[in-house]
Write a structure and sequence with these properties.
The chain is of the alpha/beta class and about 150 residues long. It has two domains: about 5-50, Signal recognition particle alu RNA binding heterodimer, srp9/1; about 65-135, Signal recognition particle alu RNA binding heterodimer, srp9/1 (2-Layer Sandwich). About 20% of the residues lie in helices and about 25% in strands. The protein is built from three helices and eight strands; from the N terminus they run βαββββαβββα. The chain has helices at about 15-25, 75-85, 125, and strands spanning about 10-15, 30-35, 40-45, 50-55, 65-70, 90, 100-105, 110-115. The strands form two sheets. It has a four-stranded mixed beta sheet, with helices on one face. A four-stranded mixed beta sheet has the order 5-8-7-6, with no helix packed on it.
């Protein structure tokens, strides 16, 4: 039997349309279902992200702890995030495995960014070993926007 895989995440949002637009623009996710701009479902071709309306009369909190994107180019993604009006991603502590950077969407939902992916638990020290990819400068100042 194959291993179960997470293929779906859901976020509660105060403004589902605005948040869906962010993920569509920055991460090129595709809207696969839109329920009158209330509940909006996006996909990257592998995982679906449901953005559901948060109502004050419920007990559910907005968002979740965090999730992660595997990306090809940290610098390019950081520039796209800043252009979308959110804070430049920050480098994760050297002892944290998996993701190299942390960012957040316009509503404050945190997500990780990783060039090496989430298949191996590697810290910054592990990545600095011979044969590892060079360190990113995504969290370093880069001009007037930083």
């Amino acid at each position: 039997m194959s291993r179960p895989r997470i293929r779906h995440l859901a976020l509660f949002s105060r403004n589902p349309k605005q948040l869906a637009d962010f993920y569509e623009k920055v991460f090129e996710m595709e809207v696969i279902r839109n329920e009158d701009n209330r509940a909006i479902y996006l996909s990257d071709g592998y995982l679906t992200l449901a953005i559901l309306p948060h109502r004050l009369e419920t007990e559910a909190a907005v968002g979740l702890n965090h999730f992660g994107f595997e990306i090809e180019d940290t610098e390019q993604m950081c520039d796209r995030l800043v252009a979308a009006g959110v804070e430049r991603p920050k480098r994760r502590p050297a002892t944290r495995p998996y993701a190299e950077h942390r960012a957040c969407d316009p509503e404050g939902n945190q997500f990780d960014l990783s060039e090496h992916g989430f298949q191996r638990a590697e810290t910054w020290t592990d990545r600095a070993q011979p044969g590892a990819q060079p360190e990113s400068t995504a969290d370093k100042p880069s001009g007037p926007l930083s």
